[in-house]
Amino acid sequence: MHFGDDLLSQTQPLTSVIILNYNGKNYLNNCLASVLKNNYSNYEIILVDNASTDGSLQTAEHRFSDDPRLKIVKNTSNLGFSGGNNIGYSHCQGEYIVFLNNDTTVDAVWLTNLVDALQNDHTIGLAQSKILMMDSDKIQIGGWIFSDYLVRKHPLAQNQSSRLKFKPCFEVSVASGASMITRRSLIEEYGLFEAKIPFFYDDTLLSVKAWLAGKRVVTITDSQVHHIMGATSAWNVEKTTFNLLRAKICLLFDVYYQPGELIQAIFVNTVDTLISTLHALKGKRLPVVYANIHGFTWMLGNLRFLWQNRHIRWSKPKITPQELKEKIVKIHLPVSMYILPSKLSKNTFASATTKYEHKLYKTSKH
User: Most buried among 8, 214, 242, 329, by the most CB within 10 A?
Assistant: First the structure.
């Protein structure tokens, strides 16, 4: 039995699973237990703690520290998703690198199916699992797709049954950071996350890098994890809204390479955000108003960083700017749909995304 396991581990590439923890006392142990029971043989777990204060790290150490597959890294401050995972990567040895949220539990074949996908298809640069709700069989995120100018971001198949028959592998605009795998070779060539932007500009940035490397970003249907919605998002409304807007601004500078297109994309998003701000002001949701103002003042104060960041992205692309835009933007609507009353705009976008999802089924829906 053990001899067979040793032979299997020798044929499977070493894979590093990075799990970032910050005050995950209510779910970290379940996550680690599920990963340690998965059926892939040759892996290591890098548990990175972002200076937790709830005893979650100590509890995990007490229960799992004797397992040789687990390595624990302790940060002295909370470096966010980007900085924490960058530290985790510096301790990895694997050929493949997996980023897994601490508020997940994984299926037994979760890792095997992720690694097999990359092993068998060298066009894949980044792949995510199908993300399910923790307490039901419904899909939480089957992948993210963007509309024109990145105004709208849609989670594929959200709230639909996990038994829905999607294609085994399909492209998405960007992967979900809850569970995603990439190649060490891609990271070594293009780098990892931007530590200056600690939240939300992470899975999107890695997706852009994969596309720029001439690789595909996909969802692997048979790799499944269960995820607690929002458990790791411990920010208030104002901070979360600001971080989302800041990440989108960075992404706009990455995706829209031609100056004229970039100016147009910023203009459309400014109008959309202004409409959102006016609605928030009318509804007396002042944190949203402050966050939107903060986001755009941040952009104006960081134009040099944004331009340099963009230059780094495009220093060695293997696709053209037009090809990148086509890979990221999956939903096309008239510009007027982004400046019309929000209900009409949202309904039009919802109809377009439903049609897009139907293309991903194994058989056509009628």
Answer: 242
H or E element, residue 44: strand 43-49
Dist. CA 64–CA 66, nearest whole Å = 6
In terms of Cβ atoms closer than 10 Å to its own Cβ (0-12, 13-18, 19+), residue 165 is: exposed
Largest CA distance in the chain: 68
For 315, residues 6+ apart whose C-beta sits below 8 A from its C-beta are none
DSSP 304-360: HHHHHHHHHHTTS-SS-HHHHHHHHEEE---GGGGTS-HHHHHHHHHHHHHHHHHTT
3-class DSSP state of 197: coil
Distance CA 364, CA 341 (A): 33
DSSP 39: S
At 230, the pLDDT band (50, 70, 90 cuts) reads low
pLDDT in tens, 183-204: 999 999 999 999 999 999 999 9
